[in-house]
Amino acid sequence: MGMISEFKEFIAKGNVMDLAVGVIIGAAFSAIVNSLVADVITPALLNPALKAAQVENLAELKTDGGILYGKFLAAIISFLVIAFVVFLIVKAINSMKKKEVVAPAAPAGPTQEELLTQIRDLLKK
Fold it and tell me: pLDDT tens for residues 46-84?
């Protein structure tokens, strides 16, 4: 029974729950970003280039020897676009956060040496 109670305690900790929520939200956010990239941004960027190369689909690009390099290029482009979109989203979220107000520094009092000098002078009198 000890192992079951330890497991319940482990699951009930806030860190595990926060991680679970983060994974679920991350999966949903991933679907949104992937759709934005695959359905909106990539076609808008690639369609003119593909038309110029007279290719319907990027994945169809291959060398004369039959090596398909189009899928690799598509994966690289997709990664770069996703990384840039996530960067822009994080930057927008950070700019929406309230700026922390930096408290003005407390006025500096006399230093330790100045206090000791004052005590010495008072003792001399």
Answer: 778 777 777 777 777 777 887 878 788 878 888 888 888
Signed CA dihedral, 37, 40, 43, 45: sign only: negative
Neighbours of 78 (CB within 10 A): 16
Are the C-beta atoms of 25 and 33 separated by less than 8 Å? no
- Bridge partners, 62 (sequence order): 68
Q: Which residues contact 87 (CB under 8 A, 6 or more apart)?
A: none
**Is the separation of the CB atoms in 86 and 34 below 8 Å?**
no
Give the Cα separation of 61 and 73 in Å (integer).
Answer: 9
